[in-house]
Sequence to fold (873 residues):
Amino acid sequence: MTTPDENPITRTSPQRMVKGILIVAITLAFGAAIIVPFWQTMIHNAPAASTLKHEAPPETETGTQTSIGNIEGVTKQQAKSNANVSAGAAPSGPGTTSPPGGTTNATAGPPGKPLTILAGASVQGSPDFDPDTITVKKGDKITVTNKDTLPHTVTSGTGPSDPNNAKQFDTSIIEAGATADIDTTNINPGQYPFHCTVHPYMTGKLVVQAGPSGPAATTTPPPTGATNATAVPSTGATNATAVPSTGATNATAVPSTGATNATAGAVGKPLTILVGASVQGSPNFDPDTITVKKGDKITVTNKDTLPHTVTSGTGPSDPNNAKQFDTSIIEAGATADIETTKLNPGQYPFFCTVHPYMTGKLVVQ
Amino acid sequence: MVLEVKQPRAMWEILFSTHHTDIGLLYMITSITALMIGGALALALRAELFLPGLQLFSDPTSFNRFFTVHGTTMLFLWAIPFAAGVGNYLIPIMVRYKDMAWPKLNAVAFWMIPVGAALVWLGFSDTGWTAYPPYSIIRAGGPAAEMWIFGLKILGISSILGSINFIVTILKCRHPDLSIMKISLFAWSILSISFMTIVAVPTFAASLIMLYTDRLGISGFFNPAMGGDPIAYQHLFWFTFHPEVYIFLLPAVGMLYEIIPKFSRKPLFSYQSGVAAFVLLALISFASWAHHMFATGMSFTEKTVFMVGTLAAVPASAMHVFNWIATMWGGRIRFRAPMLFGVGGIMLFFASGAGGVVNTALPLDFITHDSYWVVGHFHLILMGTVSLTFTGFIYYLFPLITGRMYNEKAAQIHFVLAFVGIIFVFMTQHLLGLYGMPRRIADYDGTIPYWAIMNQIATVGAWIAGLSFIIMLVNLIKSAGSGKEADMKDPFEIGEEYYDYARREPHH
Fold:
């Protein structure tokens, strides 16, 4: 602003305008130089919600030392002696709704009696389970196929408010297009209403008839009351160990399952997680392919500075991951054992749930 | 680029100056840059919606990122900094003080803006500019959302610092001869928005911290899984951002009070009613935040209270509009570019205000909620009223800043294209909303009657408006370097003295 007695008016010259534009342009070019080369990394999207796995928080298991057979094994053990079962009985953690009674999520095998979750089942009032009432003989297997586009479950009980829900059987989350099995070996003949925990208005009924049963029928079937008794201390114990996940709590976890910790003294075949394994592309498991005889024990030593796991399966998206074995989190410097007693001879790929690019293979002879 | 303070200086001297005109100019240049970037993002969004299906974007999340950054850029890097820039440039002149009250604080407040802008632009968050939980705390991707949170945090602090500076400058550094009822209405608008900023923004600043700790998982304020309440965030958010709507609007109103009397060549109709309307709007703006949330299941009493609170803003806004109309009535109007943009802005203020009354009426709100009607409505006020008026004021200040004249013909072409384009885009979006098109979708069903054709009209309108702003940019750059030398007494050749706020006897 000028008044007559001030300096004469100064006006912008083209050179100065160019200089000003250059300052803005160079600043923006710096920004572009950062944003353009890293565009793909920055624009990286989280996976769609429908593909999320509902895995248990790994810390709820034992602290540093874990030894795990497959789920089926543990549940059979549970069936044999309830006294032996405590905290360790739920190696899959509470979140995956470990099967207290009948065995669910059995590994892929011959398909059982079909139970289909129809497309559009999530809409209240639509047809949901096909058939609505499924009748099987005790010992039969039921194969649940989720044909809907959303995750569902088949869980015993009349609904979420039923105090006994999920006592008899529970598939836990079945992703869209996936299947799950319900084993009725340990379910007494009778009628069992079931529902979907995600959409409680989806209900059906399972009728188990007495009949030619499998070998498990001769063992004392764990009735509801018995499983109830074991379920409560198991969650209590896992809660107790969840908070301080150090060696001290390990001591409390030790007397859990005989199978897991009885062998803690002897050192098994070594499998080492190398330093720097968490960096993608670095050497991770040593040896990469470990060959053992059935019944051998594998001792996993985490020499890295970060927590890792050794989990069966090809990766987090493998529907059967952690079915055969899973050490859960092994803290830096800690060790864990893998029991191969229950594994059939064969090849089992494994990976680290924390860093899914860390993969290896277990060969059981 | 050259300021009248001294002889031509080195660029770095302007860049690191603490003088209010230099900082005001930096604010304006930054905000015009942001306008261009935000506009480019908007054109990409509109191009995607030209046809059903995904053409430009590989996935809907990228689309989400674009509209998030578009919204954040336009609101926090164009509207607010531009008003702050003009305020910086003019307020000390208007209150006849040598500079802002605290020049260094002023420089700090400006230099926080590029930092915040870098965080927002380099992060490219996908939360939407509202960042509603639970999405923003549970699923929103990677460092982008954190960068957005910190960027907004910095921009919020910047605007609070700027507001404190304005309040002290206007209230305490005025020339002793100048009473508060004699300062210009533009100074009144800046004073109102400064007070509103200081009351409103801390709420959002707090909720940003809560969002961040929720994202870290150490708190669960808004996380239902941890006993939190996502609706609580919406209350905190809108307690800041409904007043913020008026923080965007009032500087434009103040600028219209500069432009309208000047180009009508007639004194302002009523100064007192303008002041009263500013104060009323500043108060009422805090009584209507929940009208953004009618669909979240509030009680009927709450909804009624906020409906009435919202409608209470209508008389105050109308006071401004009638004041302008009464000023223009019987005036000898000269339609130079600033006046064209001003009158265009007033016209669209009517339209968007009428749409706002429809939104706040409870039964109609549920029909229009989260549809393109809402997009059309707030864009009509932000683009149609706020941005058009700001653009007019860019032309109005141009001779004062550069000492040169812009190309009047190009500026008038700019106005016609921008006005037509804006009506094409945003009026059509109102209709799209009534035909049921939801907001924030990257793809739509082309078989639904009229969706495709209305989206295409909107996209063409956006291209026209985008083209018009490119004309403005070229015009400004070219004219600043080699435009006709302006007659500083009367650069618009309207027979009125250009600027009566000469710094005569500045008060030290």
Summary: Residues 1-5, 56-108, 213-265 of chain A have pLDDT under 50 and may be disordered. The longest strand of chain A covers residues 203-209. The domain at 101-221 of chain A is CATH 2.60.40.420 (Immunoglobulin-like). Chain A touches chain B through 29 residues (CB under 8 Å).
